[in-house]
Amino acid sequence: MEADIRSGSLITARQAGDYGREVMAVPGSVLAGNHAGCHLLIREGSSLAESADSVLQHMGWQTYTADQKSNKRSCVPTSDQEGLILRSMAHEIMHVDAIAKSCGLTMPELSPILLAFELQGVVERLPGSRYFLAVELPKK
């Protein structure tokens, strides 16, 4: 969060960039020298991290506001397994292992269904084999 011009944080940031990692920097006050390193990183092309939302957006991790959630399209499951999977994911982001456990499915049973859902835009995959429901389920 703070990095002076001669900072170990800058060495780490440069090494991360050399390894092809995304480097983001949080700006600080221009009146204090203890943020000069962050400003240098930004001038050299590091991404600006203004807020948690800006980080999520830059990393390509989808976030939804209340307005966006209401604009989701609907999905009707075509099998009992699909319905079980969709209902288990209705309220949270879930790891693939948690989905399998909550539905009582093996990975060979679950994987093709999740892939089909992903291709149809029904679910979105996040880093770390986590998934979230990208559609509204029909009301009972």
Q: Strands, helices and their partners?
A:
Elements: H1 8-18, E1 24-25, H2 36-43, E2 47-48, H3 52-59, H4 66-70, H5 80-88, E3 94-95, H6 96-103, H7 107-120, E4 123-126, E5 130-133
Parallel strand pairs: 1-2
Antiparallel strand pairs: 3-5, 4-5
Helical proportion?
A: 40-55%
The tally of beta strands, per DSSP, is 5
Determine the mean pLDDT. 82
Class of the largest domain, according to the CATH hierarchy? Mainly Alpha
**What strand line-up does the widest sheet have?**
3-5-4
Kindly describe this structure.
By secondary structure, this protein is mainly α. The protein has two domains: 8-59, no CATH class; 66-133, Orthogonal Bundle (Arc Repressor Mutant, subunit A), CATH 1.10.10.10. The chain has seven helices and five strands; from the N terminus they run H-E-H-E-H-H-H-E-H-H-E-E. The protein has helices at residues 8-18, 36-43, 52-59, 66-70, 80-88, 96-103, 107-120; strands at 24-25, 47-48, 94-95, 123-126, 130-133. Strands 3-5-4 form a three-stranded antiparallel sheet. Strands 1-2 form a two-stranded parallel sheet. Helix 5 packs across helix 6 (96-103). It is elongated and about 60 Å long. The chain starts with 7 loop residues before the first helix and ends in a 7-residue tail after the last strand. 14% of the residues are buried.
